[in-house]
Amino acid sequence: MPAKLSVNLNAIAMLRNRRDLPWPSVTDLGAIALSAGASGLTVHPRPDQRHIRFTDLQPIRTLIDSTFPEAEFNMEGYPEEGFLRLVEEHRPEQVTLVPDDPSQATSDHGWDFRKHHNLLGSVVARLKKLNLRVSLFADGDPDREALKIARDVGADRVELYTGPYGGCFDDPEKAARLVEELGSTADIAIDLGLAVNAGHDLTVANLPALAARIPALAEVSIGHGLTADALEYGMAETVRRFCRACGQDV
Q1: What pLDDT, on a 0 to 100 scale, did the predictor assign at position 250?
Q2: Which of 131, 183, 230, 249 could be disulfide-bonded to 238 (CB atoms 3.0-4.6 Å)?
Q3: 4-245, what's its fold?
Q4: What local confidence, expressed as pLDDT, does residue 102 receive?
């Protein structure tokens, strides 16, 4: 089954936040994305609310529940208490835990599972009591022992950090090496019983090779590249383009 597409709304929210005005509307564009074939919506509510605001969360939850009940809400963030309380309030179908310092511009590395296994074990157990799916951000390094820790702390999935792969758009040889490395990591994760997501700097151009190398890829979460394309093609057509790049027949 082709990977599902979750549209990350952060870049849309960041554009809106340049003015004290309600447009572009995060929920309206989320609705267009879901109508066009996206399977879910992703947000990363940082403590400073520089893109997604806490007040965006309930309207997104309501949009999915009322109009797109087959879709999923994915909340991404560092597992500090404020974020966990937002998760408990809005009950996303999936929580993606990332190791970023809240002041970082964007996620740029996966968890050090050896160093943070106690923290992750405690947080994952708390989230599993709510019957939420938990995904942990992971580097593309095929480290079996690290991925075993991800499994053993109770995660359902890992999300492969694809930033380095997306960053070598002008170096086909390096891209081929990195997609094979990501594929090897996915092979290990799947062998251990973990499902595999992917995200960061994925585009219509680089998604097909990744999807071909990881045929069991469950989901991709895409924001920056998708939002950039939406300026040219419109949100609906952009979502269809990304779905096709995942291998979906839309």
Answers
A1: 83
A2: 230
A3: TIM Barrel (3.20.20)
A4: 67
